[in-house]
Amino acid sequence: MTFSPNNIYHIYNQGNDRQTIFLKPDDYLIFLNLYERIIHPVASTIAWCLMPNHFHFMVHADERCIPKIKQGGIFIDPITNGIRKLLSGYARIFNNQHDRSGSVFRQKTKAKCLSDIKVTPDSPYRQRDYCINCFHYIHQNPRIAKLVSRLEEWEYSSFRDYAGLRDGKLCQKDLAIMYCGYEPDTFVQKSNELVNKKLIALFQ
Questions:
Q1: Per-residue confidence (pLDDT) for residue 110, from 0 to 100
Q2: Torsion from C-alpha of 53, 154, 26, 81, nearest 10 degrees
Q3: Within 70-204, where are the H helices?
Q4: Does the domain spanning 7-202 belong to CATH 1.10.1740.10?
Q5: Pick from 57, 59, 61: which is nearest to 6 by CA?
Q6: Is the pTM of this model over 0.85?
Q7: Residue 61: helix, strand or coil by DSSP?
Q8: Structural contact between residues 81 and 69, judged by C-beta atoms closer than 8 angstroms
Q9: Pairing assessment for the beta strands 110-113 and 7-14 based on DSSP bridges
Q10: Which residues contact 145 (CB under 8 A, 6 or more apart)?
Q11: N or C: which terminus of the chain carries fewer CB neighbours within 10 A?
């Protein structure tokens, strides 16, 4: 997992053996607060969604990921190091609070660079479409999983912020406008129109 400037990444991981990683509302908030404290200083967040047994983040990497950090015998970028600290920190808190031990997350977090997806001449998608579809796919997870009937019912994603139902400060809406076609006046309508399970195959 390596991050380079001027790219957008879809970052995701799930519980070890698909176990639940958020057992109560406080767990979601603890993880999100850790993310904001650790990742926010080194990358710009475009979208996010926390699910009972996995998570998704869409981030924009800039020049802040250029300086390398020595970790053991290797040098890694600040975002990679931040994800390592985020997951290990949350696992420590989660295990302590729930009186358990062992791994919480799968060993390898995946980070798909949307700029690296090859667009062939016969592809139905343009390069920018992958950012747009990933943006909506992340928000659609709770409904795809049938946890809610309406996306605004799920508290643990950035959907409410983009829909104007909450004033969250984590996401950079200017980047969503630039890369993901975000329009405040049409966002909810477009999200409802894009209920399409085919999006899953693009981003897993």
A1: 95
A2: 60
A3: 78-97, 127-144, 159-162, 173-180, 187-193, 199-202
A4: no
A5: 61
A6: yes
A7: strand
A8: yes
A9: antiparallel
A10: 51
A11: C
Cα→Cα distances 159→23, 67, 151, 156, Å: 21, 32, 7, 8
Separation between Cα atoms, residue 78 and residue 83, nearest integer Å? 9
**Among all chains, which residue has been given the structure tokens 């309508």?**
189
| Both tokens assigned to 24 | 């109560």
Each domain of the chain, given as residue ranges in start order, spans 7-202
Q: Which of 54, 57, 30 is nearest to 44 (CA)?
A: 57
Q: How many whole angstroms from its chain centre is CA 167?
A: 18
Q: Return the closest-CA partner of residue 138 out of 73, 44, 8, 49.
A: 49
Helix %, strand %, coil % of the chain (to 5): 45, 20, 40
Q: Which residue has the tokens 């808190």?
A: 93
**Lowest mean pLDDT: which of 57-61, 77-81, 125-129, 139-143?**
125-129
Give me the DSSP letters along 150-167: SGGG-SSBSHHHHTTSS-
Which tens digits make up the pLDDT trace of 162-197?
A: 999 999 999 999 999 999 999 999 999 888 877 654
